């Protein structure tokens, strides 16, 4: 028996993404967002949805560029802080001690200490109600040398954060369950 909960955004888990932009004065800003993910393979694109009231929303509209930064578990405190304070009032990089690095490809900074960084140019903006979705074409993906093998990320070493919106908790990843595009062959071969 299943119980109806009504219309809810129960997509589990959601990624913890830190969106970085520059403001009008060129000050770097970071904001944690969970409403985002991959939206196209070719060209490679990601989407992030933000409320208009956020400082980052205005920066994105003005600069048309952002980075997506994937924090590891060791940076859960900093990632949470980035989502709690506004860049209008706080220099979040000064408070956290993390390092903004000027992107090579877009007019936005990325976070040196976070293991994965995607440099994106805004190619489409979609108004959806409470949120605006920014679709960004990924112009470059950066990953720490220590957590990749043959240019492929090792997710167990990245240790990305996951977010459960209803319980408002962060989680880490579990162990590998199966190999994609392989385990299903067991059914297809019956």
UniProtKB/TrEMBL annotation:
The lineage of its organism: Bacteria, Bacillati, Bacillota, Negativicutes, Selenomonadales. InterPro entries: Flavin_Rdtase-like_dom (IPR002563), Flavoredoxin (IPR052174), Split_barrel_FMN-bd (IPR012349). It comes from the Bacteria. One of its GO terms (molecular function) is FMN binding. Gene3D superfamilies: Electron Transport, Fmn-binding Protein, Chain A. This is NADH-FMN oxidoreductase RutF, flavin reductase (DIM6/NTAB) family. Keywords: Flavoprotein. Belongs to the flavoredoxin family. Its cofactor is FMN. Pfam families: Flavin_Reduct (PF01613). Residues 10-153 form the Flavin reductase like domain. It comes from Propionispora vibrioides. Signal peptide: none annotated.
């Amino acid at each position: 028996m299943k119980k109806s909960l009504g219309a809810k955004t129960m997509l589990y888990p959601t990624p913890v993404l830190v969106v970085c932009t520059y403001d009008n004065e060129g000050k770097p800003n970071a904001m944690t967002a969970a409403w985002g993910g991959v939206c196209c393979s070719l060209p490679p694109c990601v989407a992030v949805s933000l409320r208009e009231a956020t400082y980052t929303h205005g920066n994105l509209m003005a600069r048309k560029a952002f980075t997506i930064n994937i924090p590891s578990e060791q940076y859960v405190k900093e990632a949470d802080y980035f989502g709690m304070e506004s860049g209008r009032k706080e220099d979040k990089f000064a408070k956290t001690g993390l390092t903004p690095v000027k992107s090579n490809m877009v007019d936005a900074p990325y976070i040196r200490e976070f293991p994965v960084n995607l440099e994106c140019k805004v190619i489409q903006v979609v108004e959806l109600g409470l949120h605006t979705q920014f679709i960004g074409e990924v112009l470059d993906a950066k990953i720490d040398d220590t957590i990749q093998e043959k240019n492929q990320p090792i997710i167990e070493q990245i240790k990305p954060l996951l977010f459960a919106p209803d319980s408002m908790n962060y989680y880490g990843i579990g162990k590998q369950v199966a190999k994609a595009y392989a385990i299903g062959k067991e059914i297809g071969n019956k």
